[in-house]
Amino acid sequence: MPVTPTAAAADAERKHAARAEFPPPHYWRRWGVSDAPPAQLPALDAATDDAAASAPALRAAPPVEPEGEAPYRVLLIEDDRSQALFAQSVLNGAGMDVRVIGSGTEILAALREFGPELVLTDLHMPGTSGIEITSAIRADPAFSQMPVVILTGDTDPDQQLEVLQAGADDVLSKPVRPRHLIVAVASRVRRARAWQRQRDGEGRHPLTGLYTRAAMLQRLDAAIHAQTPSGLYFVEIEGVATLRDRYGYFALEAALIEAGRAIAAIADDNAVARLNENSFLVLAPDAGAAAQLDRARALRDELGRRDITIGDESVRLRALIGYTPLPHSFEDATSALAAAEQALRLARAQPAGIAVHVPPAKERGTDSAGMRLVHEAMMHDGFELAYQPIIAVAGGGEAQYQTLLRLRDGEGQLHTAGEILPAIEATGALQEIDRRVMQLAVAVLRRRSREKQPVRLFVSQSARSLGRGGYADWLLALVREEGIDSGSLVLDVRQDDALIHTIALQEFCAAMVTAGVQLCLGQYRASDEANALLAQLPLSFVRLSARYSSHLDDVPLRDEMRAAIERAHLLGLQVIGQQVENPQSAATLWVSGVDYIQGNLVQQAADTLDFDFQHSIL
User: Fold this and answer.
1) Largest CA distance in the chain
2) Does one domain contain both 282 and 183?
3) What is the pLDDT of residues 536-573, one digit of tens each?
4) In 317-419, at which residue ranges do the beta strands (DSSP E only) sit?
5) Structurally, how many domains does the chain consist of?
6) Do 281 and 403 lie in a common domain?
7) Which range of residues forms the domain containing residue 77?
């Protein structure tokens, strides 16, 4: 019986809505729930096929391209004619230009002839598969960054994971709702165009108008090598933790975007980039100490006079600023950024909230108690390690610990890494301290191996140290000389550092992965750049930011955390929930899908490795 387009659309929407109410098969098995409702998929009947054939009349969705932009170009690979017509009509109705081919053997010719901005392909087709198509696209340098979305009726999570591992950007379950199809395709093409503009143009973020981090570092490198008289300003918004507690994460994020635009206006349209949640970088052609101090004061004072909307209120934000003059004795953008960051640490202790970088020659003559403490520890091997267990929520006897740096002074008092880090930075000894920490950790691994008590250690290292030339060769030589299992060593790098030093870190990680050393991204907070980092680095673990475990009563933030955990699992990564202080937090993290728990609820950091992993239960 013929089906009118309106009836067909309504019937399809009802069927797809029913599909969306049920998780895929075995979803609940992870939590040991045996009585969860089984997954059910509505059967495709003749009416659905008729709807697909009639679908050209479906034009409920408005065009998705911004005004003045060319239509999004989509290459659709689908051997089922009715499904191809349905998907094509839905996307055409949203204003997209869709080319359909029925076989993956035509893919490379169609890519070159049509020049699509996204490939939408069925997973299972005669003679080929979506995985093979994706691999062929990724293997061709001309199309390696092409977004690929897979359509499949297979709800097996392992199959979907295999698709993502092949390089696909997303997997959509059939039958897909028209609105979901439009959004999935449009959002990826939009991001691909933004990425292309960043690569070909000035590298500005499409939402904020600020420079991207990569573009800013490129400009900074160019200024250093050109010896251009400039000032580099590290701007930090103070009190964001209090604002987040009061207004919530999403209201705060909107306020920080507004603050970034304000900083760009105050900086007279000079280069401004957002480095992480509450810090920004400004590069301005300021010559002379007086001009640079004036610039720092203007950034602090003018931002403080502006009303920034957060929630339904207006607030005034206080900025702390550390800056350094350029040119200087900096080798590259990384060293200049480290100098500005060090000045920012000094600014936090100043009433005015402003500090300038002090060159190393002057630092060595500074009579600082903290710096003397670090020098003495380096001279007399005063550094030690403490250990905190990381236990599997599903149980198991695998012993693994997070290593924590401690410094013991002449009176026997222990100081934490947080207490001594500013002094370490001031002495310029960060890389040397990282080496000593690594030597201590490797010595522990060697001893435990000889005692037939294997253990895995997560060892914190700065991305700046890892990216330095020669560090990878030194570390691999150390692992070989000590004869330890490289899989027992996990390098733990903070997300904020990794975002700043991504390029150097990628080169380091390539060497580590081939040797079997594993990597963990610490303090993970979901964002577009952080999510991209998950795919760019060969990670094995992610450790969630403590803001998640400490704000589990914040519903939007908890939802963000669950989405972040799911994203990590789809990439094959294991997730650690840290700073777990009470059973309620542990239970929420467990239900949200974390693989491991770490915190004082399990055990406080100690100087021994005697935790009973065999009998630990949550």
Assistant:
1) 91
2) no
3) 788 999 999 988 888 888 888 888 999 999 999 988 89
4) 319-326, 354-356, 383-389, 391-392, 400-408, 414-416
5) 3
6) no
7) 5-199
